[in-house]
Give the backbone structure.
Amino acid sequence: MRFLAAAASIFLISVSAAPAELPTLHKRAAVIADGNSVHDGNLPDWNFKYHAAGYLAKGGCPANSNITTCYIYSLSSDPAKNTEQDPYGVTIQDVILNAPSHPADGRIRRYTFKMTLDPSLTYTSSNSCPLVEIVSPDENGNPTSAVYLDIRDNQAGIFAFTDTSTPSASIPLNQFTGKHTHQTWTLKSGPGGWADVKVVDEATGATLLRYNATGQNSQGTYYMRVGTDRAADNNLKPLKVYWGDWLGKYI
């Protein structure tokens, strides 16, 4: 279970952001958050809410990403940029994109989307660096992630439930970066629930990651999250993600 340090649902955090350079290659991008201060609001698509200390823009993705409605987010390698304080006083970098919430009523819901992690990321530390999460409140009302896709220890892996140190399925980071992935997250919410995660390389059709996490993944309500929050330390590498073509529906 990953306890979310960032402002998962209320988006209220004190700001300690330093000026940050903007990515220069996204000439067709409509900037939503410039990375110089913390921004909150609604994305133009899919009823998502965003919270960003880092850079966030719509459009301008590489043509070969094959993402029709595409967003870019990035975090600097400089631990003094794209930062804010989490509720525990830890300095973090983040761009958080939250989908609409749904009741954890046992119905099955499927989410599909495309995502590419830019190959400029060549190293990840042992710190959590999530990309996709199923978020639901714990018994105290604090947002937690029971199942999530994380990049750490130079691996891309799916982590599930109480084991937050060992991925349930993983591949080396260099086999994940640069791949134009199509992801399918299917979940049955509430007691007796499960989550099936499949990450496919669109170019080859090969399955990069697959895991079925059986067990309760949500209670009360839940929502999907795309984005990253990570500790701002001296081991950071630049992070850039292209994401879009989101679809969520009951099946």
About this structure: The chain has one domain: 2-250. The longest strand covers residues 239-250. The chain is about 0% helix and 50% strand.
